[in-house]
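Please go through this chain and its backbone structure tokens and walk me through the local backbone shapes. Keep your notes short.
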Amino acid sequence: MNTLKTACVAWDAEEIPEWVPPQIEAAGVKFEALQCQTASEALLFARNADIIWVMGGSNLITREIIPQLDSCGAIIRSGSGTDNIPVDLATEYGIIVANTPDATTVPVAEHTIGLLLSVVRRIPIHDRLVRQGEWNDSKSTPRFLLQGSTVGLIGFGRIARCVADRLAPFGVKLILVYDPFVDAEAIVKGNVKNVDLPQLLSESDFISIHTPLLEETHHLISEVEISQMKSTCVVINTSRGSVVDNKALANALREGRVWGAGLDVLESEPPDEDDLLLQLDNVVLTSHIGARHEGHLDGFWQLSVETIIDLSRGKWPVSYVNPGVKPRWKLTER
């Protein structure tokens, strides 16, 4: 493969680490970067790039500019979710859409467990009570234990599998999985049971959502699905806000049709001031921080650089989200 050009058009950091450009260029790849503000600016800057790099959740790569990226063979989206990239259209044009989910797997899995415990043990409520001068061990008593429970995981990719591993020591009775794309080996290795969505909804004590936001997963959990849950169910979402119909969930929580929820992601971020979810004591909310920890960006940078180097050497990236793509380049398996 000839010398490639990589254009970084956006990054969720104050600056690009000093080590990034020389490491890319040492692999024989030309590197340029510009913090673009609009899709048209990104197109002008990266039109002749072989690899376009979006470090974070920027929406610069639109459906309008994909057909004009004549030289582009790959788009790298640092992080896990690729809902800010028109993957279907990129696939149509032979453009690989790579991501770096390994950078977020452990922190999001740990945050998922943290939200679950916070809701089940009612930790935020009791924290507020103590701070208000009320020391009362009989008010808002925790109702459930993870031990002996049935947990449902919607989606069984890297993060969900990491969650399942961390649930096992709590002594959960059964982990149900709904994922139409999961292979049998992953089910056996994960010691989980693959079921359809209605069974998972009706049998789970706790439900945790780990599916990407796609056209077919938008409002995957809506009023119909919520009506199939136990009234004692706890819902955790650390994937994308719009996978869940937030209004339907808020109404169910207010009316007691769902017992509690822990949400790191919302349909509107930040939420509107009058959002019902903000008014409910049986909801624990965090501001899309699941993947964050001190130094969390280091993993994004490193894995993205490694992806660029792999592509420059004619190798398929470690992770990409459009396996059906017919790439513009000839690539070898890893």
